[in-house]
Amino acid sequence: MDGVAREIRLVARPQGFPDEDLFEVAETSIPDPADGQVLIRNAYFSVDPYMRPRMNDVRSYVAPFTLGEAMTGGAVGRVASSHHPLYAEGDWVLHPLGWREWALSDGSALRKLDPAVAPISTALGVLGMPGFTAWYGLHELGTPAEGETVFVSGAAGAVGSAAGQMARIAGCRVIGSAGSAEKLEWLRELGFDDVFDYTEQSPRHALAELAPDGIDVYFDNVGGDHLECAIGALRTHGRIVACGSISRYNDAEPAPGPRNMFLVVTKRLRIHGYIISDHYERFGEFVEQAAAWVGEGRLRYRETVVEGIENAPKAFLGLLRGENIGKMLVKVGPAE
User: Fold this and answer.
1) With contact defined as beta carbons under 8 Å apart, do 25 and 8 qualify?
2) Kind plus residue range of the DSSP H or E element containing 312
3) Cα–Cα distance between 65 and 226 in angstroms, integer?
4) Is 22 helix (H, G, I), strand (E, B) or coil?
């Protein structure tokens, strides 16, 4: 196929908070699919907090990005040309080959999407990995019971906003933290019972005021002082869902951990970390339930959309700075 395909490559490793000089926009030819391959014109790709640790040259549960190669991540797009028996031209698909305008796939990691169920962008957000992360972490690990109090940090993000609403659906009282008045207003619209701005009030003081009798579940997207204060606020037999620690991802040196870990023993707390890719056998169950909640208006979402692949680094750094409300997406092609 004639034309130019653009992609974002990582060209250097960060020291502390990244900057845009670490990325480059590269141009290649649009590839032609061989037998067994499909060519996808991407519409949106996702930028996510887990991508920040992948910029470091450190092996973790997922391999680091390779310098000089296109970055990867969740994306949705439409099949432009197919030599694969399971996919036809015009099919909408979800795939892991983001940070580029065109993607060539052998079909092994594709999932077909039905745009009649929900906008295709939701496959990267409320009906995709972030929503699934919230659903599994809250229900399988947090095990909230009706009448309990759930505290969610990073509550205005894609995962946090879904987790808080799911806790409300489960009959819980929900407290959320976020970093701006606009985010707090949105959380109130979603039905959070109480919210606070962590840039204006410490989690310790906020939880003492909003939950004087303690909390039962802490859904942790932030780590740092939020985690320490939640340990202090948790009741006996409380549960911590350790989903992420975005407040620590840009630390140049390891920061001291919570100073009150002894309370994990005395309160008989449970801390459970997880990687959602370990649990995709449950995805079908999640998406069936979550799609119904979305259709009923019980699970709402917002998207912060940045236009143009050249602005993808700016979108990613904005995510790390907390500039998004809901899911942060980069739009790189036609969505209809």
Assistant:
1) yes
2) helix 312-320
3) 29
4) helix
Global pTM?
0.95
- Nearest-angstrom CA–CA distance, 239 and 112: 36
Q: Hey, what are 225's tokens?
A: 């002082």
What CA–CA distance (Å, rounded) separates 142 from 174? 13
CA–CA distance, 159 with 162 (Å, rounded to integer):
5
Tokens matching residue 301: 């979402």
The count of residues in the chain is 336
Residues with Cβ < 8 Å from 288, sequence gap 6 or more? none
Across-strand partners of 100?
A: 7
Strand runs labelled E in 158-233: 173-178, 194-197, 215-220
H-only helix segments in 78-148: 129-136
- pLDDT of 163-221, one tens digit each? 999 999 999 999 999 999 999 999 999 999 999 999 999 999 999 999 999 999 999 99
For residue 202, how many other CB atoms are within 10 A of its CB? Answer: 14
